[in-house]
């Protein structure tokens, strides 16, 4: 199997084979916690306007959105797994808009797509391997060290080695961005989001993305998917 690493929207556009789009901080960590918390599905859109419009015609839905990493006026949940865990999502639908993850997923041309983060990394690898692809493209949705670390972690699992996650995450933890996030001064980004997002393999499901009219649908799928 040929494993290709790519980054951002341009990387997603040119991705081949089975495609895994990674957003650790925080969109696809949010998705995983939402599905674990009982959400029926997550619906990914590209703009806040699309999120609001979809929510209007989706009874009982919850919007989670940010723009450039910042909260959106009038939307209570800003891409935070901490806030998602505190929200009753049982049998509800989460509508998500993010600056990196939902944009990159939408840019993928193919149809065999997974959304991923560290908390579902191993389960996503297993689902990909069951497809026996000739090519697997791992897309870091943004040029951030945690997304690259997740891609490297997943590749190591495929190769049968034991990846050192702390070593892979060292560039993030040593960055000014990490220390700013840990300080709690970033609006809509509680420091607990870091703890929730930077753990590997918490959940035993993958999140395939399927195209619907106006959005992409994520569900929790165990096994082949």
Task: Supply the key terms.
alpha/beta, 10-stranded mixed beta sheet, putative 2-phosphosulfolactate phosphatase, 225 residues, single chain
Strand content: 15-25%
Widest beta sheet: strand line-up: 1-8-2-7-9-10-3-6-4-5
Mean pLDDT: 97
Distance between the termini: 19 Å
Helicity level: 25-40%
**CATH architecture call:** Alpha-Beta Complex
> What is the chains' assembly state?
single chain
Structural class: alpha/beta
Question: Based on CA inertia axes, which overall geometry fits?
Answer: globular
Description:
The chain has ten helices and ten strands. The protein has about 220 residues and is α/β, with parallel strands linked by helices. The protein has one domain: ComB-like (putative 2-phosphosulfolactate phosphatase, Alpha-Beta Complex), CATH 3.90.1560. Strands 1-8-2-7-9-10-3-6-4-5 form a ten-stranded mixed beta sheet, with helices on both faces. Helix 6 crosses helix 7 and helix 7 runs antiparallel to helix 8. The longest helix is centred in the C-terminal third of the chain and has 14 residues. The two termini are about 20 Å apart. About 45% of the residues are buried.
How would you concisely characterize the structure shown here?
By secondary structure, this protein is α/β, with parallel strands linked by helices. The protein has helices at 8-13, 27-36, 48-56, 81-85, 101-107, 121-130, 145-158, 165-173, 176-183, 192-197; strands at 2-7, 18-22, 41-45, 62-67, 70-71, 93-97, 113-116, 135-140, 207-212, 215-218. It has a 10-stranded mixed sheet with strand order 1-8-2-7-9-10-3-6-4-5, sandwiched between helices.
């Amino acid at each position: 199997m040929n494993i290709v690493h790519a980054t951002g929207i341009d990387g997603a556009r040119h991705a081949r084979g089975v495609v895994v789009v990674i957003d650790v901080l925080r969109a696809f960590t949010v998705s995983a916690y939402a599905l674990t918390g009982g959400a029926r599905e997550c619906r990914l859109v590209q703009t806040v306007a699309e999120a609001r419009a979809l929510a209007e015609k989706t009874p009982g839905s919850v919007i989670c959105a940010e723009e450039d990493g910042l909260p959106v006026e009038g939307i209570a949940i800003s891409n935070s797994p901490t806030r998602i865990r505190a929200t009753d999502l049982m049998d509800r639908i989460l509508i998500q808009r993010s600056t990196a993850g939902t944009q990159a997923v939408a840019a993928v041309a193919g149809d065999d797509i997974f959304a991923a983060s560290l908390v579902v990394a191993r389960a996503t690898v297993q689902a990909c391997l069951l497809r026996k692809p000739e090519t697997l493209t791992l897309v870091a949705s943004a040029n951030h060290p945690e997304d690259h670390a997740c891609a490297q972690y997943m590749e190591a699992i495929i190769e049968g080695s034991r990846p050192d996650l702390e070593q892979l995450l060292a560039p993030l933890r040593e960055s000014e961005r990490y220390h700013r996030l840990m300080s709690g001064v970033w609006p809509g980004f509680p420091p607990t989001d870091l703890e929730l997002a930077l753990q590997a393999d918490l959940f035993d499901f993958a999140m395939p993305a399927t195209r619907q009219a106006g959005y992409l649908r994520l569900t929790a799928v165990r096994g082949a998917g």
